Amino acid sequence: MDFIYMTEEGYKKLSEEISKLESVDRPEVIQEIAEAREKGDLSENAEYSAAKEKQAVLEDKIAQLRMQLANARILDTANIDTSKVGILSKVTLTNMKNKQQRVFTIVSDTESNNKEGKIGISTPIAKGLLGKKPGDICEIEVPAGVLTFRIDEINI
């Protein structure tokens, strides 16, 4: 069994998503099925077939998310080593080519969100930063080429 490491915030979001799917989306789909069933012959009822398919997809998603929740292990930020880059590290980098600074937080893949600066631990950039220390220069191969960063700071 593979554990899924996540923050307490990520665990809470996952729990809330499951709750919404079960308490809001599931009853809506059940209602759609009931309404389609009332329209007559189920063998030729496209609305009924579509609603049943939607239900199957929803139940599969709920099962997958429940499996993630069951395998989740919440990371304790009090025990995170900030002397080198690891999961939950908030890393301030300088791009050596254009001198722009970026801040990334390395999170589990299930919590990655580029808009929030959260990158999944299995991404090329995160893999290239793991274990590095402030002042280190990292050359990281990404699909667009090679990026060179200096690690300026590591926080939680």
**Number of helix segments?**
3
Mean pLDDT: 90
Strand order of the largest sheet: 5-4-3-7-6
Helix content: 25-40%
What coarse outline follows from CA principal-axis ratios? elongated
Major sheet details: 5 strands, mixed
Structural class: alpha/beta
Number of strands: 7
Give the oligomer, counting copies of the same chain as homo and different chains as hetero.
single chain
Order of helices and strands: EHHEEEEHEE
Gap between N and C termini: 28 Å
Q: Per DSSP, what share of the residues sits in E-state strands of 2 or more residues?
A: 25-35%
Uncertain segments of ≥5 residues (pLDDT<50)? none
Radius of gyration: 22 Å
Write up what this structure looks like.
This protein is α/β, with parallel strands linked by helices. Helices cover 40% and strands 25% of the residues. It has 3 helices and 7 strands, in the order βααββββαββ. The strands form 2 sheets. Strands 5-4-3-7-6 form a 5-stranded mixed sheet. Helix 1 packs antiparallel against helix 2. The chain starts with a strand and ends with a strand.
